[in-house]
Specification:
424 residues; alpha/beta; Immunoglobulin-like; Aminopeptidase; 2 domains; 6-stranded mixed sheet; 5-stranded antiparallel sheet; binds zinc ion
Length: 424
């Protein structure tokens, strides 16, 4: 089934390349994933297709839900359903959603949360949570003077949903797959330039926290670029898990860091915390048993970013692999803990605002790498007006960047000295 769908997609794409007007229609609850294609003159393809909010919307038709996406020009697309949670996913050969809001698209709230945006270079994705199990009975693109994609869903019993849900290829379709484990990167001992991987959180169709028109994804990317520049000036090699506003799954972030031979990975966030008046910076290290309620909610929200993007965590619950990971982590974890402590110390020394518990353990997926130390810095909380102001202030960011560079250098020296000692 998977192969045939993928073959269909390839046929569709190659037909598009030949500029042949094509219309593929599949109906019935067993239709599964549906690839829709395009007519279109070559000349039109130079401009990016846009979603036209005025011609788009979600409406009930009897028991069915019909979602219409008005387009400035046709785009190749495919649509399918995913389970746990139940979601409708549509992938487009790049569709610009600028100026369109999910709330206006689905004013009646027939879907749960809707997310859309860039997914991979050249590809965009829309993910809509389903309120109840449904079958995708029609996914069609109409390529007349008012091009549009129509997705029609009908309710089905839960068992029927589970049977037909599933991405056409891998849920990680078109994403770099996690590489086989390379030989362990040799622990840094000061004999080569330090290599830091910066990991700005969220991006693309996962904006992260949002407040007053600002998104966490954009703010932490700005900060990461400034930190990269300062680290590079200090003679430290830097790689980024993303350098544009694009979606990167949590597991891919670890793969990127591993492939780069990271001496340490630093994830950067500025989440929103609903409860209390959270403000100031926090340094998180991995702790599987962390029980702090706020940290647990943050972990859930970060994993949810992947879920809502249609990219489920692989769930390494293989027991043997789990034991091996724990063993490897036994060496890495104290190094991560020290990195979080030194960074928090450096931020405090610079006189910058810290959260009431500045160093915390958390069960964040992005901190689970067993083979290199990693920390997650919440630069501040987007839910706090004072923190927002700070994040938007270039002078404050300069001070925070300087504090982190200082902290990273201090940690690396002590960490290298320990590596040399252990080897004797
Ligand atoms: Zn975040």
């Amino acid at each position: 089934m998977r192969q045939s769908i993928f073959a269909l997609l390839l046929v569709v794409l190659s037909l598009c390349a030949a500029s042949l007007p094509v219309l593929v229609r599949a109906e019935g609850p067993d239709a599964g994933a549906i690839a829709g294609p395009v007519a279109g003159a070559r000349t039109e393809l130079s401009a990016l297709a846009r979603l036209e909010p005025g011609r788009s919307g979600v409406e009930p038709v009897g028991e069915q839900i019909v979602a219409t996406l008005g387009l400035s020009q046709p785009v190749p697309f495919r649509a399918y359903l995913l389970d746990d949670p139940s979601r409708l996913v549509a992938d487009f050969r790049e569709l610009d959603f600028t100026g369109a809001s999910p709330a206006a698209f689905d004013p009646g709230g027939l879907f749960g949360e809707i997310r859309w945006g860039r997914f991979r270079p050249g590809w965009s994705r829309m993910v809509a949570e389903l309120a109840e199990p449904a079958a995708l009975i029609e996914a069609v693109e109409i390529t007349d003077a008012a091009p549009r994609i129509v997705l029609r869903l009908a309710p089905v019993p839960a068992e029927a949903f589970a049977a037909q849900a599933g991405a056409p290829a891998s849920a990680l379709w078109d994403l770099p797959q996690p590489a086989a484990l390379e030989p362990a990167h040799r622990r840094q001992d000061g004999s080569a330039p330090l290599r830091i991987v910066l990991d700005p959180g969220h991006g693309g169709l996962d904006p992260g926290a949002e407040a007053e028109g600002h998104t966490e994804a954009v703010l932490v990317l700005t900060f990461a670029r400034e930190l990269k520049e300062a680290l590079t000036r200090a003679g430290i090699e830097v790689r980024m898990t993303r350098d544009e506003d694009i979606f990167v799954p949590l597991e891919t972030r670890l793969t990127v860091a591993r492939a780069a031979g990271a001496d340490a990975m630093i994830s950067l966030h500025a989440d929103a915390l609903a409860e209390g008046q959270a403000t100031g910076a926090t340094a998180y290290h991995f702790d599987a048993a962390a029980s702090d309620e706020a940290a647990r909610k943050l972990a859930e929200r970060h994993d949810r970013g992947d879920l809502l993007a249609g990219v489920d965590l692989d769930g390494h619950d293989d027991e043997v692999a789990g034991v091996l990971m724990d063993l490897a982590r036994a060496e890495t974890q104290p190094r991560s803990l020290r990195l979080s402590q030194v960074l928090a110390g450096s931020i405090k020394e610079a006189g910058l605002k810290m959260y009431k518990h500045p160093v915390q353990g958390a069960n964040f997926a992005v901190l689970k790498a067993p083979d290199f130390p990693s920390v997650l810095i919440e630069l501040g909380y987007l839910s706090s007006e004072a923190d927002r102001k700070r994040l938007l202030d270039v002078e404050w960011r300069k001070r925070m960047v300087a504090a982190l560079v200082q902290g990273i250098e201090t940690w690396a020296q002590a960490d290298a000295a320990e590596a040399r000692l252990l080897r004797q």
